[in-house]
Amino acid sequence: METESLVETLEAAGLSPYQAAAYVALLDLGTASATDVADASGVPAPRIYDVLRSLEELAYIETYEEGSLRARAHSPSGVLEDLRGRATRLEAAAEEVEDRWEQPELEAGGASIVTRFRTVIERAESFIEDATHQILLSTTTRNLRRLAPALREATDRGVSVRVSVHTADGEDRPDPELFDGLCLEARHRPLPAPFVALADRRQASFAHHPDSYDRYGVLVNDRTHTYVFYWYFLTCLWEPWEVVYDAAGDGLPREYLDVRHLVRDLRAVDWASDPVRVRVEGHDTGTGEERTVEGTVVDVRVPFASDASTGFELAGQVTLDLDVGGEHVSVGGWGAIVEDIEGTRLTVTEAPRLL
Fold this sequence. Notes:
Layout: H1 3-12, H2 17-29, E1 31-33, H3 34-41, H4 45-57, E2 61-65, E3 69-73, H5 77-102, E4 110-114, H6 117-130, E5 134-139, H7 141-156, E6 160-166, E7 185-189, E8 195-199, E9 203-207, E10 217-221, H8 223-238, E11 242-246, E12 254-256, H9 259-266, E13 277-284, E14 290-301, E15 319-324, E16 327-332, E17 341-350
Parallel strand pairs: 5-6, 6-7, 16-17
Antiparallel strand pairs: 1-3, 2-3, 4-10, 5-8, 7-11, 8-9, 9-10, 12-17, 13-14, 13-17, 14-15, 15-16
Helix pairs in contact: 1-2, 2-3, 2-4, 3-4, 6-7
């Protein structure tokens, strides 16, 4: 680095122009009188004494009397530590500026476009950490491992977690042990897919697959927009694919992702002759308050016939009717309006014949 550049860099690190010029001159001279330092550095002679004393206070140099005021540079270890500390703080500040620019605060009803996948997955991790009842995730095995600690903690505190892992051609089918303790159920999609994380039916974190032409991410804190990602998750990333892990097995209780899945299974059994009891956790559609009920199935209502090859109704009203201690309670899915409860977690607790 040339002398002029070194002086400019020291100025950027916090020295005054005169301090930087005098210090660099003294590094070259080794030991010199104040007059010689002034001549070599271009610092005006009347100012050189104050400049040298200020450098001594910063521990860059030391001064002594030998007929006249003289100065010599300290061992650079202290200076180097100071400069490197400043560099570290500047680097940290640069990263913080970038992060704050990339991660605008998501207000309720807000959505943001971001350009880095790192931002998408970090925000997904924060959504998972704050979730209280449901997490849906589409990811690679690599990113699943990245999010594993947050997912494990969510599962431990009773959050319902479901994971769809996608793999590229030539990649092995994910080992079921990978999901142990992380989720209730996992499926495998042997095709590349976007990264999607949905939390509590309100927050969404989305990024295109890295090989996609489009390279951007979307962050959402809004039920309406998250609802769109939810349907994309169900239809493209969940419903068609093979189950590779099921924490519940074939026994009871059995939890369902959506009222539509439960109604589909109920229509295949004689629930009228063999009563089925269901516990519903959700929100009262009249007050918005959380509500939990448990009762016996008395009706399932699907007002149209589905032609979907999966038998999964992809649109329209689907309702589960329960007898809760003599009271009729209707349960709908995400966005329910006409039913009594919007069900967020539905669990079959009793069934003479397993669904």
